[in-house]
Design a protein that fits this description.
565 residues; alpha/beta; Rossmann fold; 3 domains; six-stranded mixed β-sheet; 19 helices
Length: 565
């Protein structure tokens, strides 16, 4: 049964066509991953379905009575509201009824109302009707459900009073998810809900999507998450949606096989067209310059067969789409012992320790993943390694001949007032033409290369940081969330480049697919302690699962309640 149908949808922005004649059908109760390169139009498609934008042409049919809930990449919250106040905005209808009921109750104390029996009767009737509608919409339990859901997503009682202006990106996402959980729309549209979330929150999000009673469509670059939740992958490419059954890994394999088959069919058809063309020319050569009508007729028959085959010819597949060109430069091999941290502790202004008793030893050529919940101190640990802060006690030592370079999660290494052209030329002197060519490897066109960095998208800033890293030969890379804002093809290019890098890499990441493919050791920073796991991310999760089962740990009751609703 279909819950939503998109038919011949066209959308233009200025002089650019986002997509034209796009069609797509979504089945009721399906869990769908929507993938595609940055700029393909995924977010625009969501906004059209959610009626936040109107199509230039085409139509969108929703099953009668079906409701749509949309969470954008960056939920818009009032910075002056508290966490609880923001979450209570989940249902505009309930919020409006609460305001109406309060206004009617205030008017009951107005002498001009209670002194006039007709007006008093009208107000009391309106008050009774508003209360009835409020109860019908679940308003009587609304506040408690919002609070329980917030707690289920990890907010404490103290957190509920925090101003939204001080929240992290991940916490804002959780408020957006809370709003959707409370209202329970028939169709959930989640635009990169996992961005900025730590692994614990991602695991909860996976449970939420799998257990959600309605339809869920999720845009995500987290291949691990798409493997866990998606039963269908919709790929938006070249202005068309292609639907593939199965999760992300099944889609990736099936698409590769389909492209190879398409390439084979294209080559066979091209060979047959060329064979027919040569046959036609040979027959014409026997026609005595067109005097032999029998030969001319045979040649025309062959030509018609060739033209029919050309009309039906399979499109030539694009096997290798343009992605950024990335390879890290090794300065020198450096020492065998790259980093040593002994009994390191860190506190700020004498408050509680962020961590203490930290021991970490990295050897040349290792690729180590640093994981842990948001706020555990991973970025602080990086600042100690970079020498930007000093430990409260303990020692942090880099090996001799270690040349370190750093990728910052929030792109702090970029000058927002400069242009990409100026940024790369500041790292390495080069002629302007050479700099334009270099930036072109990172998908920067002539215009983009001359725009201020502050006008670039998150993905463009990420690629610019990568471009600068490539110009800084190093043997030790510190990477803080390098896959944030990168689309899947760019993530795969980065993975390949890091696998080829002969130096040492320490990576903070919540991208589990990325960690699984790259890392041979995982270190987890949690509750102020560092624990090592001598394997990839899957090994780390297996060990964590075994420990949880041994201790009998389960989801908090509030989280379970949120999942049941």
């Amino acid at each position: 049964m279909l819950i939503l149908t998109v038919t011949d949808l066209t959308k233009h922005y200025g002089g650019n066509t986002v997509f034209e004649g796009l069609s797509w059908q979504i089945g009721k109760g399906k869990k769908i991953g929507l993938v595609g390169a940055n700029g393909a139009g995924k977010s625009t498609l969501f906004k059209l379905i959610a009626a936040e934008l109107q199509p230039d042409e085409g139509s969108i049919w929703r099953h009668p009575g079906a409701t749509v809930g949309y969470m954008p990449q960056e939920p818009q919250l009032d910075p002056d509201q508290s966490v609880l106040q923001a979450a209570l905005q989940a249902s505009p209808a309930i919020a409006a009824l609460e305001a109406q009921i309060q206004s009617l109750e205030d008017s009951l104390s107005d002498p001009q109302v209670y002194g006039d029996m007709n007006r008093l009767g009208q107000v009391m009737t309106q008050h009774e009707q508003a209360l009835g509608e409020y109860e019908r919409l679940g308003g009587l339990t609304y506040h408690n459900r919002v609070v329980a859901t917030l707690k289920g997503l990890g907010f404490s009682d103290d957190d509920l009073a925090l101003s939204c202006g001080v929240l992290s990106g991940g916490q804002k996402k959780l408020i957006g998810i809370t709003r959707l959980l409370v209202t329970q729309p028939d169709i959930l549209l989640l635009d990169e809900p996992d961005n900025h979330l730590d692994v614990d929150s991602k695991v909860f999000l996976e449970r939420l999507i799998n257990d959600y009673p309605g339809t869920v469509v999720i845009i995500s670059h987290d291949r691990y998450l798409l493997d866990v939740v998606a039963e269908e992958i919709a790929e938006l490419e070249d202005g068309r949606v292609a639907v593939w059954p199965g999760n992300y890994s099944e889609y990736a394999f099936a698409k590769k096989q389909a492209l190879l088959q398409q390439q084979k069919m294209f080559e066979l058809q091209a060979q047959e067209i060329e064979r027919l063309r040569q046959a036609m020319l040979r027959i014409l050569s026997y026609s005595s310059n067109g005097q032999n009508e029998k030969m001319v007729k045979r040649a025309r028959n062959v030509e018609r067969r060739m033209e029919r085959l050309q009309d039906e010819q399979v499109d030539k597949p694009i096997l290798n789409r343009k992605t950024m060109g990335l390879s890290f430069n090794l300065s020198t091999r450096g020492s065998d012992k790259v980093l040593e941290m002994r009994d390191v502790a860190k506190t700020f202004d004498g408050d509680d320790f962020i961590f203490e008793g930290i021991d970490l030893l990295l050897w040349q050529g290792e690729r180590v993943g640093l994981v842990g919940p948001n706020g555990a101190g991973k970025s602080v640990l990086f600042r100690l390694i970079l020498g930007r802060e000093a430990p409260t006690w303990g020692a942090v030592r880099l090996g001799p001949s270690v040349h370190l370079t750093y990728y910052a999660q929030e792109h702090q290494t970029l000058n927002y007032d400069a242009t990409p052209l100026e940024e790369v030329r500041a790292i390495k002197p080069m002629y302007e033409r050479e700099a334009f060519g270099y930036l072109g490897r990172f998908l920067f066109g002539f215009q983009k290369a001359q725009q201020p960095v502050k006008t670039l998208s998150g993905g463009e800033k990420a690629r610019l940081q990568m471009a600068k890293l490539m110009l800084s030969p190093a043997n030790f890379l510190l990477l803080d969330e390098p896959t944030n804002n990168l689309d899947i093809p760019s993530c795969e290019v980065l993975e390949d480049a890091l696998q080829d890098f002969k130096g040492t890499t320490l990576i903070i990441s919540h991208d589990r697919y990325f960690l699984d493919r790259l890392c041979t050791r995982i270190v987890e920073l949690r509750d102020g302690k560092l624990v090592e796991y001598a394997g990839n991310y899957t090994y780390f999760m297996d060990k964590k699962r075994e420990a949880a089962q041994a201790s009998g740990a389960t989801l908090p009751s509030a989280a379970r309640a949120a999942l049941r609703r």
